[in-house]
Design goal:
Layout (H helix, E strand, L loop, with lengths): L1 E3 L7 E6 L5 E5 L4 H4 L6 H8 L3 H25 L4 E5 L5 H8 L3 E5 L25 E7 L8 H11 E12 L4 H6 L13 E3 L1 H10 L2 E8 L1 H14 L5 H19 L4 E8 L2
Parallel strand pairs: 4-5, 4-6, 6-7
Antiparallel strand pairs: 1-2, 2-3, 3-8, 7-10, 9-10
Length: 270
């Protein structure tokens, strides 16, 4: 499938199958020296930082998700321990965890967020000792990394035996993905280098010695992604159409078990 970067550059990319069923990759892949231009843009940050309707929707969803994320960690980690948020952005989640009594650290490997002067941000993971974290989270960051195998192997080294790894990512087999096709905002090429189905990601983690504990749908994502997809289609009624197809996607996922996005809870078997 050929897909444009509708969000920013209008450049065209392709999705190719990998050796793992349900896992796709973006090609051609931007070279490291060039990839920052797909992030370092006011347009990339606009839906998070201005007073537009879309920005307000994003802010509302983010605030709601902070509560649910913290609740999820409390449920599966028990005692309040060391937590790493890989792909921490501006540190909003870290601040929420700290208020709840966790020792929260963040690492931002991407290119659109400054790595300095961010709340509890670690500039490099190389100096962190093995088995330091009891919980590691990746909220929509795994799809951005250059090599998911190398990244997950590194995080497993930092995670205690029996520790919890929580991953959230889009599902390219969801109803909204199928409905919007090349316009589906969940592809977000070339910022998303990888695209996982539910079974595809479970296969990847199983091969790396992680056991699946549970999966949870992220219902808010269906609305957000559908609205953004309608904007890519230049729909004048993007809010209402996006809400409708987001609702339809969520309803369909109750039967198909393929929501727009999933949260996976894994345990480190090492």
């Amino acid at each position: 499938m050929r897909i444009k970067d509708y969000f920013l550059t209008q450049e065209e990319f392709a999705l190719k199958e990998t050796e793992i069923k349900g896992v796709l990759k973006t090609v051609p892949r931007p070279v490291f020296s060039d990839i920052s231009r797909y992030y370092n843009s006011d347009k990339y940050l606009s839906h998070k930082s201005n007073n537009s309707v879309f920005s307000k929707i994003y802010s509302f969803v983010r605030k709601t998700n902070l509560h649910s994320k913290t609740k999820l960690i409390t449920k599966y980690s028990g005692v309040k321990k060391n937590v790493l948020d890989y792909g921490s952005g501006g540190g909003h989640f870290l601040k929420t965890l700290e208020k709840k009594g966790y020792n929260a650290f963040g690492f931002e490997p991407l290119f659109y967020t400054p790595t300095k002067n961010v709340f509890n941000n670690i500039e490099s993971l190389n100096g962190v000792g093995e088995n330091f974290f009891s919980v590691i989270t990746m909220w929509h960051s795994l799809e951005h990394v250059n090599s998911y195998n190398k990244t997950l192997a590194l995080l497993q080294r930092l995670l205690k035996p029996g520790g919890i790894l929580i991953i959230a990512c889009p599902n390219h087999l969801s109803y909204d993905s199928i409905h919007y096709g090349k316009y589906w905002a969940g592809y977000d090429v070339p910022r998303h280098l990888w695209h996982f189905s539910k079974k595809g990601l479970i296969t990847v983690l199983d091969s790396l010695n992680f056991s699946l504990i549970n999966t949870k749908p992220v219902f808010f994502d269906a609305y957000y992604v559908s609205m953004l997809s309608e904007k890519y289609k230049k729909s004048k009624l993007w809010f209402f159409k996006g809400f409708f197809f987001g609702l339809l996607s969520n309803a369909y996922s109750l039967v198909s078990k393929n929501p727009s996005s999933n949260v996976f809870i894994f345990k480190n078997k090492k």
